Amino acid sequence: MTHAAEDVVDAEALWRELVREIPDFPVAGIGFKDITPVLAHPGAFAACADAMAERFAEAGVEAVAAAEARGFIFGIPVAERLGAGFAAVRKPGKLPAAVVGVTYELEYGTDRLEMHVDSFAPGARVLIVDDVLATGGTARATCDLVERAGGQLVGCAFFVELAFLGGRRRLEDVRVESLLTYT
Ligand code: AMP
Fold first, then answer.
1. Which 8-state DSSP code applies to residue 144?
2. Would you call 111 helix, strand, or coil by DSSP?
3. Which site in 29, 108, 117, 176 is 20 to 30 Å from 59, CA atoms measured?
4. 57 Cα–ligand 1 center, Å
5. What are the phi and psi torsion angles at 144 (to 5°)?
6. Alpha-carbon distance 76 to 88, whole Å?
7. In this structure, what are the phi and psi dihedrals at residue 96, rounded to the nearest 5 degrees?
8. Using CA atoms, how far apart are residues 183 and 177, in angstroms rounded to an integer?
9. Comparing C-alpha atoms, which of 57, 113, 116 is closest to residue 81?
10. Model confidence over 51-103: pLDDT tens digits?
11. Is 68 a catalytic residue?
12. Could you give the 3-state DSSP secondary structure of residue 99?
């Protein structure tokens, strides 16, 4: 079956054109990278999932872990392309069976993420996927969660990296790939 990604000649240029910055969202001073125009463009979005999966095609990925909500959007097609399972990382109280959880620091206050303990087999090779790498807090917490659940981290794949926020520094022990970097 063909899909629209094949019609995209210069994916990076198209992504850069589609991602739009919304100033002062959700609070004053934040330049929010809105990726929804990429989702609205079938070729651009398919090219995105293709490219993320391609970077880890030889990594023997057995499960993709991603945090709600935007992580799910990117993580699921990447898992499907890699022939891997999908591990849902959710806000507290959403998952019905036994969970592992991690509480992490935000700029103000703390947040918590949870994942089912049996999301993947012990020792499984796990790739983390998210839409945007900003300060790296969410990705770091997801890495800790995967390790706590007995997974073997193979890397983190992001659509967008806001390099000026230094999130990569919090992920020094893991391979990090991003498709679109803003400096
Ligand atoms: P962080 O934990 O700081 O790396 O970012 C947490 C999540 O918030 C990311 O997965 C993004 O979905 C979102 N996020 C943070 N900053 C931005 C931004 N400037 N534009 C768009 N999304 C962002």
1. H
2. strand
3. 117
4. 26
5. -65, -40
6. 9
7. -80, -25
8. 15
9. 57
10. 999 999 999 999 999 999 999 999 999 999 999 999 999 999 999 999 999 99
11. no
12. strand
pLDDT score at 71: 98
Measured in degrees and rounded to the nearest 5, phi and psi for residue 182 equal: -110, 125
pTM score of the predicted model: 0.96
Helices vs. strands in the chain: H and E counts, helices first: 5, 9
3-class DSSP state for residue 7?
Answer: helix
Ligand 1, closest atom to CA 34? 21
The C-alpha atoms of residue 165 and residue 7 are separated, in whole angstroms, by 33
Please provide the distance, in angstroms rounded to a whole number, between the alpha carbons at the two ends of the chain. 37
Residues of the chain with pLDDT under 70: 1-3
Query: What is the CATH number assigned to the segment(s) 5-182?
Result: 3.40.50.2020
Active-site annotation holds for 140: no
Please indicate whether residue 70, judged by its CB atom, sits closer than 6 Å to ligand 1: yes
Identify which of 91, 132, 95, 128 has the alpha carbon closest to the alpha carbon of residue 110: 91
The tokens describing 73, both together, are 């959007």
- What residue spans define the domains of the chain? 5-182
Residue 8: C-alpha distances to residues 3, 15, 41, 47 (Å):
10, 10, 11, 7
Question: What is the DSSP-derived secondary structure letter of residue 137?
Answer: H
In degrees, rounded to 5, the angle at the alpha carbon of residue 171 between the alpha carbons of residues 92 and 56 is: 95
